[in-house]
Amino acid sequence: METGLVFTPFLPGDSLLFATGAFAALGSLNIASLLITLIAAAIIGDNVNYWIGYFFGKQIVAHPKIPVDEKHIKQAQAFFNKHGGKTIIIARFMPFFRTFTPFVSGISRMEYKKFVSYDIVGGILWVSIATIAGFFFGNIGFVKHNFSLVIVGVIAVSLIPMIFELIKHKLKKR
């Protein structure tokens, strides 16, 4: 749901993937089935979000309470034409961006074949890295005994790229 609905960017995808991997390490879940299911869900979710943007995006952003206009969409189109593929892959690892990137890809009419090919790579990488990290670290005593703290740490680490970009953006404005 985090990647499939543009309205749910607050769901903690990284920490949930890590947690499911940790549960698999404890024997509660099968890691292979888990990876296949989660990769499929991530890719399907992004595709749903792409098509929401494609078919309904302009109506959604035309709403007076949404601070996006036609100029922003044209900028997004230019950005995706230049950096689209790597943006889709990198955004998978950045909370909030991971939710909005497929939506903006659809709204900006990014070529679907290009979108889906990068989305598959990004989905496989994101799910695999986060879930397998949980699987390998899930049986470590510290992680078992401080699971909530570890999950907060995973969330904090996943926010670092976004914070870095915000700081970089603020410094550029000066």
Explain how this protein is built.
The structure is a single chain. The protein is mainly α and 174 residues long. It has one domain. Helix content is 78%, strand content 0%. The chain has seven helices and no strands. It has helices spanning 13-25, 31-61, 70-91, 97-107, 112-137, 141-145, 147-173. Helix 1 (13-25) packs across helix 5, helix 3 packs across helix 4 (97-107) and helix 3 (70-91) crosses helix 5 (112-137). The radius of gyration is 17 Å and the shape is globular. The N and C termini lie far apart (37 Å). The model has no long low-confidence stretch (mean pLDDT 82).
Brief write-up:
This protein is mostly helical. The protein has one domain. 78% of the residues lie in helices and 0% in strands.
What percentage of amino acids are in beta strands?
under 5%
- The parts where pLDDT drops under 50 for at least 5 residues are none
The termini sit apart by: 37 Å
Give the overall average pLDDT: 82
Query: How much is the radius of gyration in Å?
Result: 17 Å
| Number of continuous helical runs | 7
Number of domains: 1
Return the string of H and E elements: HHHHHHH
Number of strands: 0
Assign a percent range to the helix content.
over 70%
Q: What structural category arises from helix and sheet content?
A: mainly alpha
Tell me the overall shape.
globular
Largest sheet: none
Task: Say what oligomer this is.
Answer: single chain
